[in-house]
Amino acid sequence: MKKIAFKTLGCRLNQYETDALASRFHSGSYEIVDFSQPADIYVVNTCTVTNQSDQKSRQTINQARRQNQQAVVVVTGCMANNYKESLLESKAINFVVDNERKTSIFGLVEKHFRGEVADPEGFDHDVFSYEAAYKTFHTRSMIKIQDGCDNFCTFCIIPKVRGRAASRPAAEIYRNIAEVVEHGFKEVVLTGVNIGRYDDNGTNFEQLIEGILNLPGDFRLRISSIEPDGFTERFFELFSHPKLTPHLHLCLQSGAESILLRMRRMYTARQFRQMALKLRELYPDFNLTTDIIVGFPGETEAEFEATTNLAKELNFSHIHTFKYSVRSGTRAERMPDQLSEKVKNHRSEVIRKISEANKAAYYSAMIGKTQRLLIERIGNDGVARGYGESYIPIRIKAKNLKRNQFAEVILTGLHQGKELEMTAELVITDRSGGSNN
To answer: Which residues are CB-contacts of 184 (< 8 A; sequence separation ≥ 6)?
Structure first.
């Protein structure tokens, strides 16, 4: 039995695709090992959204080669599309597989070990032909519903490396979710590049969500990163369904209208604010997280201040902060007034501190409230950890808990370890239907 190791960098879409590939290799009698261990095959699923992403991807590729000089190293993901020619010249890499042919990696490796000519170009393009992932690196099951993007934001290279927007047939999505629920997964996370623009022959994103919520089974549905545009009133109403988690990662990028315009975003800061406030009005404990880019070309102190003000007002419990990174071939590359790394670093630190303060405030406000915890892991110390429906990391010590089990808990306080978590106690239901802590 040959050993194979996977390393995923970047987004949840990459994570889903890695999970699906791992399941395919597992069913094909390969042993999946940790990336730090010796293996016969290493698959590096790369990211190229920033210069830092490129650097991490290259380091990971070199790490794989150092661990086994004789191993087959397969590089795929967005960096494989963006830097294909230079990667093909690398002696550390055996195969470079673009995103469109990522599903072919199993067949490619099989051909190689049979001694046949193995060429990624010999496989068909298909971004949706992944099998249902049952052997994953997560308790939650990610489901790919869409790929590519037609927005062409001035800073973004994704349309180049992922292609134009395409939606997976709704029937395939329903079947995929039914399969992973049958495999025992309790949480389904929808992922893609721009999932809000989903459209399968007239079935839009909101209709797709309704269809998923009507599927049988004890599972909950989470929407991953989404662009804040194109929503109708029905979208807000959907969160009243008990299966749909009250959490969204809405991509803000900037709180300054002038910056959003130069970024060519499809919404305004005013529209974003209205959407966030409406969610909080309908669902007071709704958890919002976001992305923010600092140091976009020409960003003034006043424009940055507009971002910090909005970040504080909307109380995002987490802010994924990106320092603007020049991507070759984008419009922003040619913009004047590129900011220094010193300025970007300073502004990144300011946003980081706001994020930490927001998180502590949001978590503190949740003390005394209940959550349905999905247990993801149990440590040697007996502490179980996982996430509530509001995407709050929770730790609890109690007997008879199991991994991949739902548990009703009441949040009791904050715990500062490597990351801020919430402590909890089980909600114990008595025979009369009441509950005691």
So the answer is: 404
Tokens coding 155: 């800073």
DSSP annotation of 253:
B
Question: Residues 230-239: what's their mean pLDDT?
Answer: 92
Positions of E strands within 68-131: 72-77, 95-96
Condensed to tens digits (0 to 9), the pLDDT of residues 267-279 reads 999 999 999 999 9
What is the H or E stretch that residue 359 is in?
Answer: helix 341-365
CA 234 to chain centre: 24
Count of CA atoms in the C-beta half-sphere (13 A) of 61: 25
SS3 assignment, position 416? strand
pTM, full prediction: 0.88
Phi/psi of residue 173, nearest 5 degrees? -65, -45
270 is written with which tokens?
A: 């005013």
User: How far does Cα 433 stand from its chain's mean position?
Assistant: 38
Angstrom distance (rounded) from CA 427 to CA 421: 18
Element (H, E) at 323: strand 318-323
User: What is the spatial distance between Cα 48 and Cα 78, in angstroms, rounded to a whole number?
Assistant: 6
H/E element holding 142? strand 141-144
Cβ of 406: how many Cβ atoms within 10 Å? Answer: 16
Beta bridge partners of 410: 370, 425
| Residue 101 to residue 434: CA distance in whole angstroms | 55
Q: Give the strand pairing for 406-416 and 420-426.
A: antiparallel
Query: For residues 301 and 307, what is the distance between their CA atoms, to the nearest angstrom?
Result: 10
**Strand pairing partners for 167?**
146
| Token couple for 343 | 């300025």
Residue 324 region by backbone torsions, left for phi larger than 0, else alpha for psi between -120 and 50, else beta? beta
**Contact predicate 372/186, CB 8 Å:** no
Q: Distances in Å between the alpha carbon of 279 and those of 217, 236, 382?
A: 27, 7, 37
Is residue 249 very low, low, confident or very high in pLDDT (cuts 50, 70, 90)? very high
Report the first-to-last Cα separation within the chain, whole angstroms: 49
Cα angle, residue 246 at apex, residues 429 and 404 outer, rounded to 5°: 55
